[in-house]
Write a structure and sequence with these properties.
The chain has 8 helices and 10 strands. The chain has 230 residues and is of the alpha/beta class. The chain binds S-adenosylmethionine.
Length: 230
């Protein structure tokens, strides 16, 4: 039976690819990836050369069908995205859904676990992690105010993503909603400019201004009702 391996890749530091992930990539018939340039860099760093099949949010049905046909023919494929764990706020999940719907028991879908920015940030937050909610990205336009109001009332630790383009706006709006609640904001995890900011939204806005708002961010909000750490 063919296998679709869902492989987590580094979120910055290329040495974070696990030996098992590299072995699966080295031996796959082909690697399905989001941006071939990003994956080519990872493969080159580890001396791996395999055919790449691009698949992303805007891929046509034909591309998805080609992947399904390959698996149905018995090919072993690896699925990666640009960073971290496929399907976590990126396109991998749609492909897994389509493959399972089309082939079901005819393919083994197996995870090769590894880096995930949300989990990495949660692990250093110091906030309760026995119960948390991950919310992907805040809405870009409509419904932002309601979104921040809702997360402000959540009884669990809240983790979400933000890009460099909206980090200032997001931290300001979050501050309006949560006041002086404790936050942890992680910038550029595992990379040269990794910075972990701790404090209130207002303190972190000032700290980000004093350092840099460039890069990728994960925001971790402490629970509305303080609980002891698990
Ligand atoms: N699948 C990925 C994962 O497992 O973390 C997430 C993909 S999502 C499209 C990209 C977002 O993840 C970025 O905008 C940022 O919020 C977060 N992210 C990814 N790498 C990061 C890093 N090294 N440091 C901080 N945040 C990161």
């Amino acid at each position: 039976m063919s296998t679709l391996s869902v492989v987590a890749t580094p979120i910055g530091n290329l040495q974070d690819a696990s030996p098992r992930a590299l072995e699966v990539l080295r031996t796959a018939d082909a690697i399905i990836c989001e941006d071939t340039r990003v994956t080519a860099k990872l493969l080159a760093a580890h001396g791996i050369s395999r055919p790449l099949l691009s698949h992303h949010h805007h891929s046509t049905k034909d591309k998805t069908q080609d992947i399904i046909d390959r698996l149905a023919r018995g090919e072993n494929l690896a699925l990666v995205t640009d960073a971290g764990t496929p399907a976590i706020s990126d396109p991998g999940g749609e492909l897994v859904r389509d493959v399972v719907a089309a082939i079901g028991d005819g393919v083994t879908v197996t995870p090769i676990p590894g880096p995930c920015a949300a989990i990495a940030a949660l692990s250093v937050s110091g906030f309760p992690a026995d119960r948390f909610v991950f919310l992907g990205f805040p809405p870009h336009k409509n419904g932002r105010r309601t979104w921040f109001k809702e997360i402000a009332g959540r009884p669990e630790t809240v983790v979400f993503y933000e890009s460099t383009h909206r980090i200032d706006k997001t931290l300001s709006q979050l501050g309006e909603a949560v006041g002086s609640r404790a936050l942890v904001v992680c910038r550029e995890l595992t990379k040269l400019h990794e910075t972990i900011y701790r404090g209130t939204a207002a303190e972190i806005v000032a700290a980000v201004k004093a350092t840099s708002d460039k890069g990728e961010f994960v925001i971790v909000l402490s629970p509305a009702v303080p609980r002891s750490r698990a």
